[in-house]
Amino acid sequence: MSMTAQLSTASGVNHVDADIKASGNSLGIWAMRVAFIALVVGLPMGFFQAAERSGLFPWLESTAVYFASTTTHGVLLAFVLTTFFTMGFGYHTMAHSINKKAFFGWIGFWVSLVGTLIAAVPMLTGAASVLYTFYPPEMAHPAFYVGATLLVVGSWFWVADMLIGFTQWKRENPGKPVPLVMFAIAINALMWGWTSLGVASEVLFQLIPVSLGLMETLDPGLARTLFSWTLHAIVYFWLIPAYIVMYTIMPKEAGGRLFSDEMARIAFVMLFIFSVPIGFHHLYLDPMQAAGWKLLHMFGTFMVAIPTFITGFTVIASLEIAGRLRGGKGLFGWIMALDWKNPVVLAGMLSLLMLTAGGWGGVINASYSMDVMVHNTQWVTGHFHLIFGGTTVIMYLAGAYWLWPKITGHALYSKTLAVWQLWLYAVGMVVLTGPWHALGLAGQPRRVSSTPYNQFPEVVASWGTYELLMVIGASMIVVSGFMFIYNLCKTASSKIAASEAEAKVEYAQAIHPPVRVPRLLNSFTFWNWAMFAYMIISYGYPILQFAFIGTPGVIPWGY
Amino acid sequence: MTAEEEKKILESAPVGTWALLAAYGVMFTLGWLVMWYLFISNGPVK
Question: How large is the ipTM?
Answer without folding.
Answer: 0.92
